[in-house]
Structures are given as C-alpha cells and as structure tokens.
Amino acid sequence: MALAAQLALALPASIPSPPPEFSKISIGPLTIHAYALCILAGILIALWLTNKRLTARGGNSDMLWDIAIWTIPFGIIGGRLYHVLITDPMYYFGIGEQQAHLAEIPQIWLGGLGIMGAVSLGALGAWIGCRKSGIRLSAFVDAAVPGLLLAQAAGRWGNWFNQELFGAPTTLPWGLEIDPSSYNFPAGLPADTLFHPTFLYESLWNILGAIVLIGLDKKFKLRRGALFCCYMIWYGIGRTFTESLRLDPAEIIAIGPLALRVHQWLAIGIVIAGVIALVFVLGKLRGQQADPFYLPGKEPAVLAAAAEATEATEATEATEATEATEATEAGKASKVGEAPASNAPQKTQARSTSEPDAEGN
Q1: How far apart are CA 273 and CA 91, in angstroms?
Q2: Which residues contact 199 (CB under 8 A, 6 or more apart)?
Q3: Using alpha carbons only, what angle is made at residue 289 by residues 286 and 292, rounded to the nearest 5 degrees?
Q4: 19: buried, middle or exposed (CB in 10 Å: 19+, 13-18, 0-12)?
Q5: How far apart are CA 50 and CA 71, in angstroms?
Q6: Directed axis angle between helix 34-56 and helix 137-155, to 10°?
Q7: CB 143 within 8 A of CB 60
Q8: What pLDDT, on the 0 to 100 scale, is given for residue 13?
Q9: Is the pLDDT of residue 15 over 60?
Q10: What residues have CB less than 8 Å from 248, skipping those under 6 apart?
Q11: Which residues, at least 6 apart from 201, have a Cβ–Cβ distance to it below 8 Å?
C-alpha cells in the first residue's frame, strides 16, 4: 500500500500539453510543423509494416511504391476534403454569417485531416496503383490495414501538439491540460480545467487494433478483404466512443431519439458495413479457391512466359529481317556480276567475224 501511494504521488496529476512554440520548428525561411511530422511518421511506419506483410504474401517493395505514390496523395486530399466539407464547413465557407476562411483550406499543417475521407479517397488511389502493379486490391488492403492503424495512432499525436480535438472536462488523473489562451479552449471554463485526452484514447486503441488484426490474420489467414472488414469494425467502435467525448464543432444529426455528431453516425455506419461485408466474405467467398494475390494475367509466371514469347518473336523477326537483307544484297551482287558476262559472247563474236576478213584480204 505504501509503495502504491508513493507511485501515485510520483505520477503526474495530469497530462501537460506542449507549449505553442513546440508545435513548429523554424529553420531559416522554412517552418516545419509538428502536426506534419506526426503525419509523416505515421506514413513511414505504415510503409514499413505494409512492405513486410506484402513481401510475405508474394509482393515486393517496387509494388508497394507503385501503389503508395497514388494512395498517399489521394488519402491526404480525401482527408482534407472530409474535414472541410463534413467537419467544419461553416468555418471555411463562412456559412451562417461567419467569416470565411478559404485561404486555410490547403493549410493542412494547421490540423484537419479526416481519417474517414483519407481512407475513402485513399482506397481509390490504392485501386489505381494496384491496377498498375498487377495485384488485387483486396490483397493489398489486407496487408496494409495494420500499418494504417499505426499511422493513425502516430497522426493523433499531431492533435496533442496543436492542442485540439480533446474531450469533455474531467477530473481523472490523466486529464489533459490545455492552454487557456488557446483558440480551442472552451469559453466559460476555469483556466485549470482538465479534458479527456481523446487523442491518446484513439492512439492507444489503434495500436491495440493493429496487434489484434495481426493476431487474427496469423490465426485465421484472413483474405479477400476480410481483414479490412475487421479494421472497419475495430476503428468504427473506437471512433464512436471518442466522438461521444469530443467538444470540437460538428454537425448534430437527430435520428429518432438519438441526436449524435455526424462523425458518430458515420462511425456506426462503418461498423455495420464492416460486419455485413465480413459475413459476406467469410460466408460466400471463403469456401472458394484460394484468394489469388495477382490480377488475372499479371502472375509472374504468365508475365515471364509473355516476356519470353515476346523475346522469341523479336528474335525471329530480327533473324528474318537479317536474312531478307542478306538476300537483297546477294541479289544486287549477282546482277552486278552478270553484266560483264553477258557482253563476253558479243566480243568473241565480233573477233571471230573479223578474223576471216583478215584472212580473205
């Protein structure tokens, strides 16, 4: 008991937020924002883990980069569009007699990337990349979702640096401190108010989710998009909970007796869609043949055979072209050689005609 009491006293009574100057680093004319660094760290972690999982399934690093150059930009654009159009359109477009902030729409380093939009549009980019690299989208997303959860976990720490997206006031010992002078500090509350660290809740939930998904995959060999369905269920449950605590502006939609934030309704919809899709995949497709990794006609053996056939055709065409050229040159040479030979009898005939005349004279 005494040791527990000492540990309790040693632990901080709250989670401090970093000072505003920690949210960005200035190097000459260049300003690097901590939020952007957190997003970048998440992308690198996701690429690292996805590469390991994709390679284990028969892919390679080149395939991953071919897909990533489409997925990452699409995901960033989708995340920003979701935040601007769904989360806070009144702020950006000046709806309801507010001042518009159109210039802030492309300033993603200030915060504001909606993961639901990032995954939705990022999936389109992944589909394009998969078509170009020759692998199935389902195979890629099943390999990518544990890394995606880790990327989301890292990205949430950008909210900590920006002192944003925190939850309701709390007296819990892990309550989050927010600078009272911050734009995000709720008006009318005491300066020492602590808030639920929803960024931390979601970060830990996503880390745990990555571990759970990897464990499920090892045990059940989930394919055909089944692991992605599990991701939808896991993330949707966690997001539904954290959204119930958050204070940042969001549209409230009432359906029957329930009046929830728009993000909560979407998260619930993701859970329902994930359950339905998982039942379909496991019930309808699991009994079929093993899920192929490559698109039809894009298998390495097929591509190798096609390459060999192409090389053989090119070699045959080259040989035929060479033979045709040699035959043409030989024909020209024979014509040049025939011209003097045809004149020889004429000269002989002329000489034979002149000889009798000489003798007759």
Answers
A1: 30
A2: 156, 157, 159, 160, 165, 166
A3: 100
A4: exposed
A5: 13
A6: 150
A7: no
A8: 82
A9: yes
A10: 87, 164, 165, 184
A11: 167, 238, 241, 242, 245
In the chain the first and final C-alpha atoms are separated, in Å, by 154
Q: Which two tokens stand for residue 281?
A: 């995949």
Which of the four pLDDT bands, split at 50, 70 and 90, describes residue 345? low
Strand (E) or helix (H) holding 325 = helix 300-360
Most confident of 63-67, 316-320, 337-341: 63-67
> pLDDT digits over 51-109, tens only?
999 999 999 999 999 999 999 999 999 999 999 999 989 899 998 778 999 999 999 87
Taking alpha carbons only, the member of 230, 348, 244 closest to residue 278 is: 230
Distance of alpha carbon 136 from alpha carbon 249, whole angstroms: 39
Q: Are 158 and 38 in contact (CB under 8 A)?
A: yes
Q: Count the Cβ atoms, other than its own, within 10 Å of residue 77.
A: 17
Name the one residue in this structure whose structure tokens are 């464990």: 215
Task: Report the distance separating Cα 263 and Cα 255, nearest Å.
Answer: 14
- Whether the Cβ atoms of residue 39 and residue 113 lie closer than 8 Å to each other: yes
